[in-house]
C-alpha cells in the first residue's frame, strides 16, 4: 500500500461521487476527473430525457390508468406503449445503476491512489472485456421486443376486463387484478368447464404420448432385430404417416370415422357386426383421437429410437452374452438406458407438444361431441382449443389470456424438466 | 451496498411511475372529433378507401361500380381486398392508427359486436332507406339506429330433384310423406335431408310454432326474454326430433354428406342455401328445382335472413362522401350489376323484384323466401346462443327429451350472457 501513498487523495470522497452520479449521470465521473466518460454519460442522460422522456411518461401513465377518455384513448395501444416504456426504462435504469456504481468504484480507486488509466487504455479495456456483450446487445434488444413483449402483453391482458362488452376504443379497460383467475375457479360456469377440460387435457397428454412412444419403441426394436429382412422397406413404410401432413390426415380420418357413412364402421367393423359411435359418444371420440395421435406420432419416435439403436456398440451385448445375460436383462440394462438418456429431452417435448396439440382436436371434431350439462366446451376440448373458443367465438379475451397463462406455466414446467434432463444426459450419458 | 443501491433505484422508479402524468388535453364537451366533423363536413376528398370481400367475382363487380362512381364524382375509390371475417379485427388495429378504410363490408349479425367495440358510426340513409327491402333495413338496425347500407340478402330454401319428386313439397305433411316413402337408409336413399342439428337451418321450425331467440320490440332486443324453451319452441323441437326418431335423417349428417347424397341423386329434397346452386346445377342440370320452405299450419315459416352491408368506419374522415358512395353501390342499377356478376341476391327492393332476378328460376324461390324471412338477431348476445342451442339440437337428434334439453340450453345461454359481462 505504501507505494501508492504519494498519489493518495485524502479529500476524495466516494459517497460524494455516488451522490453526484445519482443526481445526474456523469457528474460523479466528472468529479473523478474522468471527463470523457462523464460527458458521455451526461449526453446519454440528457438526450434520453429529451427524446424519450415524453414517450415514457405517456406510456407509464397509460399503463397505469389505461386511458381516461373513451374513443380518444385506446387502452390496448396504451398497454403496448406502457410495456415498451417499461422495457426502455429498464435499459436506462441498468445503465444508470452502472453509472453510479462506476462513479463510486473509481472514487475509491482514486482515494487509494491507484493509477488512472489514460483514455487509450480505457478504451482498450472496454473493448477487450466488453467484446462479447457489444455483439450480443443488438440481438438481445430484438429478442426483448419480438419475444418478450408479446408474452408480457398476453400476461397483462389476463389482469384486465377485456371482453366483447368492454372493448376499446369505445370503452376503456380497467385493471382487475386476479379477478379473472378467481372467476375461473369459483364461478360455476367457468369452474365446471375449466376443471373438466383440464382433467381431459392431462389424460390426453399422458395417454396419447405414452402410447406413441411405446409403439415407436416396440417397432424400432422389432425392425432393428438382426433376423428381420427388408429393413429399409419396412422403415420407409413406417415413416409414411409422418410424411403426409397431419392437417390432411386428420380431416380424412374425421371422414373415415363418421358413424354412419365412414369406412371404419361401414367397411371394417360391419364385418364383425359392430357399429361404434365414434363422433357422437365422448368416450369413443376420445379413443379415436388417441388412436389417431398414436398413428401420427409414432414415426418420429420410431425414427429417433432407430437412430439411437444403431449407435449402441455390439460389444456391450457380446459382453452380456459372455456373462450369460438374458434377453430381458440385455434390454433392461443396455438398450433402455442408452435409448432414454439420449432421447429424454425430445420425449419430454413430445408430451409438451401433445399438451398443446390444437390441430388434431380442432380438426377432428371441433372438440365435440357436446356433453349435456357441460357448458362452453365439448367432450374432447383440451385447454388450448378451449382458449380458441373463448377468443374467437365468445370474445372473452381476458379469460382466454388467463387460461393461456396457466397453459404457459405448465409448458414451462415441461421445458424446465427438459433442461434438467439435458444436463443429466451430459453428465451420465457416457455410462 | 449493491443491494441498497438497486433498492434506491427501484424507489426512484416507483416514484417515477407515480409521478407520470397524462397528456394534457381538453376533456368533456369539446372532444377533438366534434371540431373535426364541423370543419370537414362537405369537403370533397381525393379518394375513398373501401375494404371489399376477397372473392374474385365480387371484387370484379365492385371494380366496375367504383369506376362509375369515379366518373360521376371525380373521387377515386381504392378497393382493398380483405376477407370479410378478418375485417373487424384488422379495423380494430388499423382504425386508430389512421390506416383504416372509409367503408367496410360485413354480415349484419356482427353489427352488435362492432357497435360495442365502437368501430362503426350510424349511417344516415336518408330517402334511400325506403329503397331497401324491409327485412334488410330491419337487419342493419340495432339499438334503434341504422348501421349500414345493405347490399346482399341471403336465406335458405328447398331444393328438390325433379326425377324423384314431381313438384316441390308445399306443406310439411307433403314433405313428411316424401321422407316416409323414399327413405331407405340401408341403400343410402333419403327422401329429405337437412342439417337439422344446426340452429341456423332449424330456426324456421321453432319460429313457425311461436319460438323466438330474443323478444324484439321497437328495433331492439330484450336479451333477457329468450323464447327457445317456450311451448312453440318445444313443439318445433319435437318435430325435428321426430325426423331423427323415424330415421328420415341420420344423426351423422353433415354438409359434405348431404351435398354428396343430393348430387348423386340419392336424395329427393334438401333444405339449404343458394350458395349450393352452382354445385347442384353442375351435377343435376335441369333436374334441379328450388322452392320456398314448406308451409307449416298454412304459412311459410320464417327462415333466418343474412344481410351483408357496407358499414361506415368511425375513423373515416369523409363520412358524408363515404355514405354517398355506399348509397351509390347499393342503388337499383348497381346492385343488379352486382347480382349479375357476383351472383348474390340484391337487398335493394326494386332490384330484387327486377326481371333479371325473378326470371332466374333457381334464385326466384330464394327471393320469395326472403320476404317471409326474419333477420338473424344482431345483438352481441347472439354469440352466446349458438353453441348451447346447437348442442341442444344434437341432444334432440340423439333422442334425449326435448323439453329438458331446451330448458338446459336456455339456462346455459342465460348463464353465458351473465358470465360474459
TrEMBL record, chain A:
GO MF term (any one): ABC-type maltose transporter activity
GO biological process: maltodextrin transmembrane transport
Family: Belongs to the binding-protein-dependent transport system permease family. MalFG subfamily.
Keywords: Cell membrane, Membrane, Sugar transport, Transmembrane, Transmembrane helix, Transport
Name this protein carries in UniProt: Maltose/maltodextrin transport system permease protein
Organism in which the protein naturally occurs: Falsibacillus pallidus
GO cellular component: maltose transport complex
Major location (coarse): membrane
InterPro entries: MalF_N (IPR035277), MetI-like (IPR000515), MetI-like_sf (IPR035906)
Domain ABC transmembrane type-1: 198-418
Higher taxonomy: Bacteria, Bacillati, Bacillota, Bacilli, Bacillales
Membrane topology: Multi-pass membrane protein
One Pfam family per UniProt: BPD_transp_1
Residues annotated as transmembrane: 12-31, 38-56, 76-101, 133-159, 197-221, 233-257, 287-312, 333-353, 397-417
Gene3D superfamilies hit by this protein: MalF N-terminal region-like, MetI-like
From TrEMBL, chain B:
Gene3D superfamilies tied to this protein: Periplasmic binding protein-like II
Pfam families reported in the protein's UniProt record: SBP_bac_8 (PF13416)
Lineage: Bacteria, Bacillati, Bacillota, Bacilli, Bacillales
Cell inner membrane among keywords: no
Membrane topology note: Lipid-anchor
An annotated GO BP: maltodextrin transmembrane transport
Compartment(s) where it occurs, according to its Swiss-Prot or TrEMBL record: Cell membrane
Annotated protein name in UniProt: Maltodextrin-binding protein
UniProt GO MF annotations: carbohydrate transmembrane transporter activity; maltose binding
Amino acid at each position: 500500500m505504501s507505494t501508492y501513498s504519494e498519489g493518495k487523495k485524502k479529500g476524495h470522497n466516494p459517497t460524494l461521487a455516488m451522490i453526484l452520479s445519482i443526481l445526474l449521470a456523469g457528474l460523479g465521473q466528472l468529479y473523478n476527473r474522468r471527463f470523457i466518460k462523464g460527458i458521455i454519460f451526461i449526453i446519454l442522460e440528457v438526450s434520453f430525457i429529451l427524446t424519450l422522456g415524453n414517450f415514457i411518461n405517456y406510456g407509464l401513465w397509460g399503463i397505469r390508468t389505461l386511458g381516461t377518455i373513451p374513443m380518444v384513448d385506446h387502452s390496448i395501444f396504451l398497454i403496448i406503449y406502457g410495456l415498451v416504456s417499461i422495457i426502455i426504462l429498464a435499459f436506462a435504469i441498468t445503465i444508470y445503476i452502472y453509472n453510479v456504481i462506476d462513479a463510486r468504484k473509481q472514487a475509491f480507486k482514486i482515494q487509494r491512489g491507484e493509477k488512472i488509466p489514460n483514455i487509450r487504455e480505457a478504451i482498450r479495456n472496454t473493448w477487450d472485456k466488453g467484446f462479447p456483450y457489444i455483439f450480443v446487445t443488438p440481438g438481445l434488444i430484438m429478442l426483448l421486443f419480438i419475444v418478450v413483449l408479446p408474452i408480457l402483453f398476453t400476461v397483462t391482458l389476463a389482469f384486465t376486463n377485456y371482453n366483447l362488452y368492454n372493448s376499446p376504443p369505445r370503452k376503456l379497460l380497467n385493471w382487475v387484478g386476479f379477478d379473472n383467475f378467481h372467476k375461473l375457479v369459483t364461478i360455476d360456469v367457468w369452474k365446471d368447464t375449466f376443471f373438466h377440460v383440464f382433467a381431459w387435457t392431462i389424460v390426453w397428454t399422458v395417454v396419447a404420448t405414452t402410447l406413441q412412444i411405446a409403439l415407436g419403441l416396440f417397432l424400432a426394436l422389432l425392425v432393428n432385430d438382426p433376423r428381420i429382412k427388408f429393413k429399409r422397406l419396412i422403415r420407409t413404410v413406417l415413416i409414411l404417416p409422418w410424411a403426409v401432413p397431419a392437417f390432411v390426415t386428420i380431416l380424412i380420418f374425421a371422414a373415415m370415422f363418421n358413424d354412419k357413412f365412414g369406412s371404419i364402421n361401414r367397411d371394417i367393423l360391419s364385418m364383425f357386426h359392430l357399429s361404434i359411435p365414434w363422433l357422437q359418444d365422448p368416450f369413443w371420440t376420445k379413443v379415436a383421437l388417441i388412436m389417431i395421435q398414436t398413428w401420427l406420432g409414432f414415426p418420429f419416435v420410431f425414427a429417433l429410437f432407430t437412430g439411437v439403436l444403431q449407435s449402441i456398440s455390439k460389444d456391450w451385448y457380446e459382453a452380456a452374452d459372455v456373462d450369460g445375460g438374458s434377453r430381458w436383462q440385455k434390454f433392461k440394462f443396455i438398450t433402455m438406458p442408452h435409448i432414454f438418456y439420449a432421447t429424454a429431452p425430445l420425449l419430454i417435448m413430445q408430451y409438451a407438444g401433445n399438451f398443446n396439440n390444437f390441430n388434431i382436436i380442432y380438426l377432428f371434431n371441433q372438440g365435440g361431441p357436446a356433453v349435456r350439462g357441460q357448458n362452453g366446451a365439448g367432450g374432447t376440448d383440451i385447454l388450448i382449443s378451449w382458449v380458441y373458443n373463448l377468443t374467437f367465438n365468445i370474445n372473452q379475451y381476458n379469460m382466454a389470456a388467463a387460461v393461456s397463462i396457466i397453459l404457459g406455466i405448465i409448458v414451462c414446467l415441461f421445458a424446465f424438466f427438459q433442461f434438467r434432463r439435458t444436463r443429466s444426459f451430459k453428465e451420465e450419458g457416457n455410462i | 451496498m449493491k443491494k441498497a443501491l438497486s433498492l434506491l433505484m427501484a424507489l426512484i422508479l416507483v416514484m417515477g411511475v407515480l409521478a407520470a402524468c397524462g397528456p394534457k388535453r381538453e376533456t368533456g364537451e369539446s372532444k377533438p372529433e366534434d371540431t373535426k366533423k364541423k370543419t370537414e363536413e362537405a369537403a370533397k376528398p381525393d379518394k375513398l378507401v373501401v375494404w371489399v370481400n376477397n372473392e374474385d367475382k365480387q371484387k370484379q363487380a365492385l371494380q366496375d361500380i367504383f369506376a362509375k362512381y369515379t366518373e360521376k364524382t371525380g373521387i377515386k375509390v381504392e378497393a382493398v381486398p380483405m376477407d370479410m371475417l378478418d375485417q373487424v379485427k384488422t379495423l380494430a388495429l388499423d382504425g386508430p392508427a389512421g390506416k383504416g378504410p372509409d367503408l367496410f363490408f360485413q354480415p349484419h349479425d356482427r353489427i352488435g359486436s362492432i357497435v360495442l367495440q365502437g368501430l362503426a358510426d350510424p349511417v344516415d340513409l336518408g330517402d334511400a332507406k325506403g329503397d331497401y327491402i324491409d327485412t334488410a333495413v330491419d337487419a342493419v338496425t340495432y339499438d334503434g339506429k341504422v348501421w349500414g347500407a345493405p347490399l346482399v340478402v341471403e336465406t335458405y330454401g328447398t331444393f328438390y330433384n325433379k326425377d324423384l319428386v314431381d313438384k316441390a313439397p308445399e306443406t310439411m305433411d307433403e314433405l313428411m310423406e316424401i321422407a316416409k316413402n323414399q327413405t331407405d337408409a340401408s341403400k343410402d336413399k333419403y327422401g329429405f335431408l337437412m342439417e337439422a342439428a344446426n340452429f341456423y337451418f332449424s330456426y324456421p321450425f321453432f319460429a313457425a310454432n311461436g319460438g323466438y331467440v330474443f323478444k324484439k320490440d321497437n328495433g331492439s332486443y330484450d336479451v333477457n326474454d329468450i323464447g327457445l324453451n317456450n311451448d312453440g319452441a318445444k313443439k318445433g323441437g319435437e318435430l325435428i326430433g321426430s325426423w331423427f326418431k323415424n330415421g328420415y335423417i341420420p344423426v351423422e349428417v353433415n354438409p359434405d354428406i348431404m351435398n354428396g347424397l343430393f348430387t348423386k341423386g340419392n336424395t329427393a329434397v334438401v333444405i339449404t342455401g343458394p350458395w349450393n346452386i352452382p354445385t347442384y346445377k353442375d351435377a343435376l342440370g335441369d333436374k334441379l328445382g328450388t322452392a320456398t320452405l314448406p308451409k307449416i299450419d298454412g304459412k311459410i315459416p320464417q327462415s333466418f335472413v343474412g344481410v351483408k352491408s357496407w358499414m361506415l368506419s368511425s375513423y373515416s374522415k369523409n363520412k358524408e362522401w363515404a355514405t354517398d358512395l355506399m348509397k351509390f353501390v347499393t342503388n337499383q342499377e348497381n346492385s343488379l350489376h352486382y347480382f349479375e356478376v357476383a351472383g348474390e341476391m340484391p337487398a335493394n327492393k326494386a332490384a330484387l323484384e327486377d326481371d333479371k332476378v325473378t326470371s332466374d328460376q333457381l334464385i326466384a324461390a330464394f327471393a320469395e323466401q326472403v320476404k317471409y324471412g326474419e333477420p338473424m338477431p344482431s345483438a352481441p348476445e347472439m354469440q352466446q346462443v349458438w353453441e348451447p342451442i346447437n348442442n341442444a339440437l344434437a341432444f334432440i337428434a340423439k333422442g334425449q327429451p326435448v323439453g329438458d334439453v331446451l330448458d338446459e340450453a336456455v339456462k346455459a345461454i342465460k348463464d353465458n350472457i351473465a358470465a360474459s359481462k
